[in-house]
Amino acid sequence: MAKIKSLDMRVLEDIFEMGAGYVLNFSDRTMGDFFYHELSIDIDDEKYRRFGHSKAKRLRCFLYTENPGVVVKTLRALWDYRDAIKGPFGEDDEKERILKERFFEIVRGIEVGGEVIRTDVIEKFEQSQTLEELISAIERDIQANKPQAALDRLHT
């Protein structure tokens, strides 16, 4: 089960326009199709109707009850869909930039069980190309939800 704080859920609700029971521009049919074809998930399953029948309530239930890996994959797919229908936003749109940063902080938090792993605390004794490559590899492993591989590299 993914751990999503209520404040984080409010951010997700804002990003995915979940007011009044809606989710982005989805109809019931198109949301079902999106989840089925993109994620192989039946969002219309009765187990996601525990909070109610609206698209937003089913999505909330899904986000609270599924495992973190599935939730992260779903959130990223929904973000990509949002970008596709609204167009990618420029970095000069301050509100959108802040929402994007917050969204990916939430996603990273879910990936690592609520704790964001920071690689900027690795002390650099001297500038080294090898060290930079090692830190990049650690960050990639963390983002790919492979903490054991990241720890192995950290021991290097």
Structure description:
The chain is mainly α. The chain has a domain at 6-93. It contains seven helices and no strands. It has helices at residues 6-15, 28-39, 55-65, 68-86, 94-111, 129-143, 147-155. α4 packs antiparallel against α5 (94-111) and α6 runs antiparallel to α7 (147-155). The longest helix has 19 residues, at 68-86. It starts with 5 loop residues before the first helix and ends with a helix. The mean pLDDT is 85.
Query: What is the beta-strand fraction?
Result: under 5%
Number of helices: 7
Distance between the termini: 33 Å
Shape: globular
Radius of gyration in whole Å, from Cα?
18 Å
Number of strands: 0
| Poorly predicted ranges | none
Structural class: mainly alpha
Helix and strand string, N-terminal first?
HHHHHHH
Please state the average pLDDT score: 85
Helix content: 55-70%
The biggest beta sheet, please? none
Could you give a quick summary of the protein structure above?
This protein has a domain of 88 residues. The longest helix is centred in the middle third of the chain and has 19 residues.
